[in-house]
Design goal:
single chain, 434 residues, alpha/beta, Rossmann fold, 9-stranded mixed sheet, 9 strands, 39% helix, globular
Amino acid sequence: MKKRLITLLVIAIVATGICAKRTKTTDFAKRLKTVPGITSVTKIESSRFSERYIATFRQYIDHNDTTRGTFDQRIIIGHVNYDSVAVFVTEGYAATYTERQDYREELSDILNANSIIIEHRYFNKSIPKIEEDGAYWDFLTTYNAATDHHRIIQAFRTIYKGKYIATGVSKGGICANLFRAYYPEDVDITVPYVAPFCDGVEDPAMAKEIQNYGTPDEREFLTEFMRHLFSRRDEFLPRLQEYVDSLELTPRIELSELYDLSVLDLEIAVLARGEIKKLPFYEKASAEELFNALTKYGSPEGFTPSYDNMPYYVQAAKELGHYAYDISRFEGLTSINNTDDYLRRCALPENQPIEYDPSTREMVIKFLQNTEAKMLFIYGEYDPWTAVGIKDIVNNPNIYIMINPGNCHRSKIRNFPDEIRDKILSVLKDWLYK
């Protein structure tokens, strides 16, 4: 009996300690809850920040008409110090991956800065509920997204009063660029990583330029790899059907066209990841190895309608643009004569009048050509998205465009050659501290 009482006492003491630990609220957590617009705060574990939280922020569905209602947008905050620089990450998609315990984006790590990551509207847990018939996609605009960012950054200035850097990768880089164009005074510095800037829904620039990417041997190998896949279409179509069925995909196009588009897209994905050397040697590889390479890089999922892909494709079709394919190198090998209008046919919502508006691109170009804003763009030399970046359309001595030699869509400041990396860091620190 005595032993049992001691055991219960120990359990009670331990439980009390656990409860005390769970209920302890830091000064930052208290202040975070007072930020205007914050609707919830949840602590998450981090090995890279002293404190990290997931919060939700109340946004208007339509910033031009606030009577349409609101939704909660997810934010992930990594706290360092109230007086430190704040890195404001304009994520272009879902932000779930940033919840990892060991996650920290590059700039906040380099500068030991606070981190505020914004999940993009219409993705993951930041999806508005819209009941108006036929109006669902109307409020997925670059202006609304930029205004989401504007309202959040204004709110966070109640606790972080120092300098702000806006940044993002790929589509997130586009968002950082657009945010600066719409609200040029909101941040001190903008650093878009590998941000494309397509001209139209099916911009041909990428398909033309990437044919020169890589060494001559790499280019020849990648082209022959694709030719080999095209030549074995009949053999691989049953495998593709099994793959589609296993994922419960519902493509709108014929299986053969889906195969062709997947092979064409493989080239872009392989170059973007810098992984030509990871492809199996086509003449000796097994059928399974070849098909696995196709589905890894060609991604048939990208050519089928699903909500996970659709917000991006809607934005591409409305304002951001997308890329076209060049099938002239594979004449006689494809089952299709062209890839015209593939985005609409494959992935856009049906029966929706979505038309491309070039005025957003024109507005941003005008801004970039004339701004004195501190902006530094990072690209990879052999990244397909660099072909549709700003390097050939913006000539402004105030804007730095840094190209990572031989690198891809995974270009980071830290994987630049030493001399260029040191220059980038010197520019950023001059902007921040001088």
